[in-house]
Amino acid sequence: MNSTDNRELIEALDELEKEKEISKDIILEAIENSLLAACKNHFGKADNIKVIIDRESGEVKVFAEKLIVEEVIDPTVQISVNDALTVSADKQLGETVDIVVTPKDFGRIAAQKAKQVVVQKIREEERKVIYNQYFEKEKDIITGTVQRNINGNLSVNIGKIDTILTENEQVKSEHLKLQDRVKLYVVEVKDTTKGPRITVSRTHPELVKRLFEYEVTEIADGTVEIKGIAREAGSRTKMLVHSNNPDVDPVGACVGVNGQRVNAIVEELHGEKIDIINWSEDPAVLIENALSPSVVLSVDVDEEEKKASVLVPEYQLSLAIGKEGQNARLAAKLTGYKIDIKSVPDEA
Q1: Taking the mean position of all CA atoms in its chain, how far away is CA 84?
Q2: Cα separation of 326 and 231, whole Å?
């Protein structure tokens, strides 16, 4: 490369660093390594060769590191004391000195290699920057726009890249259309040769948890804890909450004034019902609360077997069990207990 090409390379790399956050030094090191490999055609497999690109001017030089000796036996790796002094006046016997050995046609080779490496490194570094950006969103919520339907799977643009919301991770009752804005839970971010692969979901229970963390200040600051979530996406979610401050009602904080907070989340989930339930250390109380909104008469708990027998009024039996067993099923999932519900006749 001539001096003009050298300057243009450095200017181009400076611009890349500003615009795309791709380190100039990383690219220059890659060019140096590429040129070092090219040097083997000229110098053979000599281990004492190195290529240095000046970080300011872009000038490319090839150096051979040589040992200063009294008698030169191998000139590829050795240099006499007198010859060494012409390069560096302060060098002594037994030390090493760098000798410029840049081949005559090296500028042309350097220009070709620089172009190849820059293109490759831009791709690699862009992919790395994008991966790091989205890796920070793993286990969090990201907003995207539905682009197209591919055999039931939805391609969703999430900023710099598109991701696929698979049919399995879609809520069956939702009917997302093209250009719909949608919040997604980022299950996993993987780095691949084709760029980051992002697994997203609308059915994951953590989506509901994250929505509440963003909506409810008391959860965000740790005053209220979400102790557990059981979800049947698109239909119903049960969520256990606990307050670390006796003056703060955890259920009330999640519901919000006039239901404002919970309604915002229900709207985002397209009408999914959400039961917000007080957590308790007492398994019997916990199970009773989890079977809300039904009335419970008694709970007999076997903690070793993780089983519970529940009695409800006969008129409450269908409510306790729920449509197609959903209420009891979610309560069992939420508490970790196998729940057997029986009724007693209503009093006359």
Answers
A1: 54
A2: 10
